[in-house]
Amino acid sequence: MAKQTANISPLDGRYRKDVLDLALFFSEEALVKYRIRVEIEYLIALSKEKRIPEIPMLSSQKQNRLRKLYERFSTADAERVKAIEATTNHDVKAVEYFLREKLAHTQHKNLIPWIHFALTSEDVNNLAYSLMWKDALVFVYLPTLKKVYRALRQLARKYKSLAVLSLTHGQPASPTTLGKEYAVFCQRLLRQLNYLKAHTLQGKLNGATGTWGAHHISYPDIDWIRFSRRFIKSLGLEPNLITTQIEPHDSLAESYHALVRVNSVLTDLCRDLWMYISRGILGQKKVAGEIGSSTMPHKINPIFFENAEGNFGVSNALFNHLATKLPISRMQRDLSDSTVIRNQGVALGHALLGLKNLLKGLGRLTVNRSRIHEELHNHWETLAEPVQTVLRKSGREDAYEQLKSLTRGQEVTREQLHDFIAGLDISDEDRKLLLSLSPETYIGMAAKLIETL
Q1: How confident is the model over 311-346, as pLDDT tens digits?
Q2: What's the CA angle centered on 210, arms 208 and 216, to 5 degrees?
Q3: 18 lies in some domain
Q4: What is the pLDDT of residues 208-240, one digit of tens each?
Q5: In terms of domains, do 140 and 95 share one?
Q6: Catalytic residue check, 9
Q7: Residue 329 falls in the annotated catalytic set
Q8: What's the burial of 142, exposed, middle or buried (CB within 10 Å: 0-12/13-18/19+)?
Q9: How many domains does the chain have?
């Protein structure tokens, strides 16, 4: 059986090519690499501490040599770590033993006792998982989300003045523009983009129960709180100094919830676009060789928006569990978070897959102007709002009731509406204004709004 067809997860099978970039951050090999990065950087930080005379200050050259252990980390290295883990049954301890092996026959042999010095596994893990998440957002997810934002902004500007019939409660309503509706989602996405760019992830480095007990008993004269704060900041994370054995994952949960909001916004977009296609005001480009239905040759299904919606839903189910489970731990530590947090890459994979399918769908959209005009022309009753509003301005107390009697629950033609306007006791100026209106022109300041994007 071919390898791709043997995978359980569709992310590693059918959709692997679309999420392959995330393997650099969330594969088992990547996790080991991030752990080694934390261990090596911690070792270097210890060497810089003057109150630890047993470790000589490492030169820049020696620091760079040590950093190559994670910068040049290979698949063969990862397999060696996993082989050690098969004996230890402890993933972080396997990393420590791997580094011992690497240093055993080098000039850095004297550093072996200082690998993982005074640390608990969670000191390494919490930093590694946060760094993985942070890097995946910065290098893969956010650039793709920005592409979606830019595509929507381009569509908003292109169709800023193209009037379309609104549907509120599924019923014909005052016209809007297609561009303005795209702009709504631009604005919603921009808010979440700004939040994600500004949000900071926390990390901890304070020992088995958050007291720096092993650190302090070994070197009581060192300000370990200051040391940890400086070290965590050097990794690009915000120090969380008061914790149990685990960093409580609150900042990760905040980030997951932001992704839930993005997924929800884009699910809303997918459903709206699906409805526009169903109404016929939007179409989809034909692609030679593609098949919409195995039995109905005429169909071009909105599969990219449906795929995106489905993946956003799976992503949200996972993110919601991650965000509500990870901040909860019994007393100072339990391991129920360990198996859960490994799935953050799966959740992001489905979110990324949703983004990519959404982009494909947006790139294939066409506009059916004749259908748009037909919809608007069939619903002159949507001008009941401006007519009754002008009547109110003229002092008519029963303005709303007059238009309700004419239009409620029924379609109104242009001729019927103009006959009604002709019989109104209003100024010639107001009459001329109302008679000049059409569903295509009653779009308010929709086009101007696009300039704010």
Answers
A1: 999 999 999 999 999 999 999 988 899 999 999 999
A2: 80
A3: no
A4: 999 999 999 999 999 999 999 999 999 999 999
A5: no
A6: no
A7: no
A8: middle
A9: 3
